[in-house]
Structure formats: structure tokens, C-alpha cells
Amino acid sequence: MPYVFDGRKYAVEKEEILKNKVIALKQKGIIPKLVSIIVGSDPGSVLYQNLKKKAAERVGAEMNIIRLGSDLKTKEIQEIIGSLNRDTSVHGIMIQMPLPDTFTKENREEIVNLIERSKDVDGLRKDSPYLHPTSKAVLEVLDYALDIVRPPCKERTCKVCVVGAMGMVGGPLTKELRIMNNELRDEGAEGCRSGELTRLRNLQFEILEADSKTSNLSQLTGSADVVISCCGVPGIIKEDMVKEGAVLIDVGAPVGDIDKKSYEKASFVSPVPGGIGPVTIGCLLENLTKPLT
């Protein structure tokens, strides 16, 4: 039977650490403040925003949500972001994704890049000093997995297959793995964006990039010691596509990418729901508080 990661329990432990950091900050007169902008009324986005707000309140941080209509013009959002950039009491600004279909990819990039670099706690700017919270959560869970199951790849190059490697989560994740592997320079990051991750940093990786349409997807996932799927295609990773003893990390939402029958072959599983999701919110709040401590 695999070790099934409990993201909710892990998140509670992370929140306790954050709570103590916030107490120390308040003693210095600093109250960490995050402002999140949501455009439209996508039910998933609204739910996720509320979960973030509750988590922020539990650790003692402040989070304000600005709700805007989907018919809002880009210029109006620009003015709001400009005001938040100038507000010294605001330490983090984020735009809840996805934006409505009326916004183009170019609109999205323009809006994200308006956020002051030091306040981009969601790590969406290309030059952000922060790693995207979901990507950061995946790396934390993988580091945890390597301690729990001690896979054979600790003695050799570890093959990691990222399915969805060009997406919002997979892109930053793959880049960070390559930085840790000394294949890329860390451009613009202030300190270690992905935390300590001591077990990961002692490994060498062979990084296999794929997406849902990769022709030899089964071959890539089947050869990997670690399969991380974040392509958003429910059940795309089947039982016959993973090898015995693999570490499986599912980042599909709202339904998992990895078929649950695959779990029987794994040594470690981070499932959906209850895996990466709860950890992601903690990583966002870490990004908010880290530069203040």
C-alpha cells in the first residue's frame, strides 16, 4: 500500500509556524496584508478566495478581497493595482485566475506585470522573487515524499516527469527543478524561492516534460521515478502508465489527473482532493510573510 499524503494535516502544521511568525511581526508593528482581486463570479474562484481568506485569518494576517464585474475594462484594473502598489500597508497583491474569457492572454500578462514585483506573492510575473504557490507546494511535498519512502533514485539520477510542463503550475515548477539541477540560472529571485528542500537539493534530476497530447506520454511516465501531473485532464494517467514504486503527485483540479487505480502501484501518493491544494494556501501566506521577517 502506498503512503497517502494528508495535505490538510500538513497545512495545519504549516499554519502553526506561520502563526508564530505573524505574532512576532505584530510585536514589531507589522500586520501582513494581502489584497486579492477577483474579476467575475466564477464559483471555483470565489470558493478558493474564501478558503485563502479563512487561512489568512487563522494565522493572524489580513486579507481583503476586491470583487469586480466581468465587464470591467483593463484600464480600471490598472488603476486599482496602481493604488495598491502605492499603499505601503499592502504587502501582497494577487489577481485570482482565471480571468473571464473577455480578457486575452495579452490582457492577463499586462495586468499581472502591473503588480509591483515585491508584492507579486502569487509568483505570476516572470521576474517575480516568489515561486508560484502551487509549484512551491509540489516541491515541498516531493521533498517530504523522498524522506518518507526513500526511493531507489536517491542513489542515482531521479527521473521526474511533469505532465503539463508548459502550464501555469508546470512551467514554474519545471523551471525551478532545472535551477535546482544547475541547468538554469535563477534570474531575479531573492534568496531561495522554493525553501530549504534539503532532500531534493541533494539529488540530480532527469526532467521529462510532457503534456496531454505528447505522443509517447505512456513511455515517459512509465520510466519516471516521480510523476507530477498538472495538465487538468481527469484520469489521464492510467495504471499501466506508471511503474511500481513511483511517487505520484496529482495537481489536477477540481478532479485529479491520476486514475486512482494507479495508486496501487505507487510508493507515495499526493491525491486530489486533500493533497496539494491545502498546502498551496500555506505557501501563498509564506510568500506574503517571508520578506517581512
TrEMBL record:
<dbReference type="InterPro" id="IPR000672">
    <property type="entry name" value="THF_DH/CycHdrlase"/>
</dbReference>
<keyword id="KW-0028">Amino-acid biosynthesis</keyword>
<feature type="domain" description="Tetrahydrofolate dehydrogenase/cyclohydrolase NAD(P)-binding">
    <location>
        <begin position="207"/>
        <end position="290"/>
    </location>
</feature>
<dbReference type="InterPro" id="IPR020631">
    <property type="entry name" value="THF_DH/CycHdrlase_NAD-bd_dom"/>
</dbReference>
<comment type="subunit">
    <text>Homodimer.</text>
</comment>
<dbReference type="Pfam" id="PF02882">
    <property type="entry name" value="THF_DHG_CYH_C"/>
</dbReference>
<keyword id="KW-0511">Multifunctional enzyme</keyword>
<keyword id="KW-0521">NADP</keyword>
<dbReference type="GO" id="GO:0009086">
    <property type="term" value="P:methionine biosynthetic process"/>
</dbReference>
<feature type="domain" description="Tetrahydrofolate dehydrogenase/cyclohydrolase catalytic">
    <location>
        <begin position="6"/>
        <end position="122"/>
    </location>
</feature>
<keyword id="KW-0658">Purine biosynthesis</keyword>
<dbReference type="GO" id="GO:0004488">
    <property type="term" value="F:methylenetetrahydrofolate dehydrogenase (NADP+) activity"/>
</dbReference>
<keyword id="KW-0554">One-carbon metabolism</keyword>
<dbReference type="GO" id="GO:0006164">
    <property type="term" value="P:purine nucleotide biosynthetic process"/>
</dbReference>
<protein>
    <recommendedName>
        <fullName>Bifunctional protein FolD</fullName>
        <ecNumber>1.5.1.5</ecNumber>
        <ecNumber>3.5.4.9</ecNumber>
    </recommendedName>
</protein>
<feature type="binding site">
    <location>
        <position position="253"/>
    </location>
    <ligand>
        <name>NADP(+)</name>
    </ligand>
</feature>
<comment type="similarity">
    <text>Belongs to the tetrahydrofolate dehydrogenase/cyclohydrolase family.</text>
</comment>
<keyword id="KW-0560">Oxidoreductase</keyword>
<keyword id="KW-0368">Histidine biosynthesis</keyword>
<dbReference type="GO" id="GO:0000105">
    <property type="term" value="P:L-histidine biosynthetic process"/>
</dbReference>
<dbReference type="GO" id="GO:0035999">
    <property type="term" value="P:tetrahydrofolate interconversion"/>
</dbReference>
<comment type="pathway">
    <text>One-carbon metabolism; tetrahydrofolate interconversion.</text>
</comment>
<comment type="function">
    <text>Catalyzes the oxidation of 5,10-methylenetetrahydrofolate to 5,10-methenyltetrahydrofolate and then the hydrolysis of 5,10-methenyltetrahydrofolate to 10-formyltetrahydrofolate.</text>
</comment>
<dbReference type="InterPro" id="IPR020630">
    <property type="entry name" value="THF_DH/CycHdrlase_cat_dom"/>
</dbReference>
<dbReference type="Pfam" id="PF00763">
    <property type="entry name" value="THF_DHG_CYH"/>
</dbReference>
<dbReference type="GO" id="GO:0005829">
    <property type="term" value="C:cytosol"/>
</dbReference>
<dbReference type="InterPro" id="IPR036291">
    <property type="entry name" value="NAD(P)-bd_dom_sf"/>
</dbReference>
<dbReference type="InterPro" id="IPR046346">
    <property type="entry name" value="Aminoacid_DH-like_N_sf"/>
</dbReference>
<dbReference type="GO" id="GO:0004477">
    <property type="term" value="F:methenyltetrahydrofolate cyclohydrolase activity"/>
</dbReference>
<keyword id="KW-0378">Hydrolase</keyword>
<keyword id="KW-0486">Methionine biosynthesis</keyword>
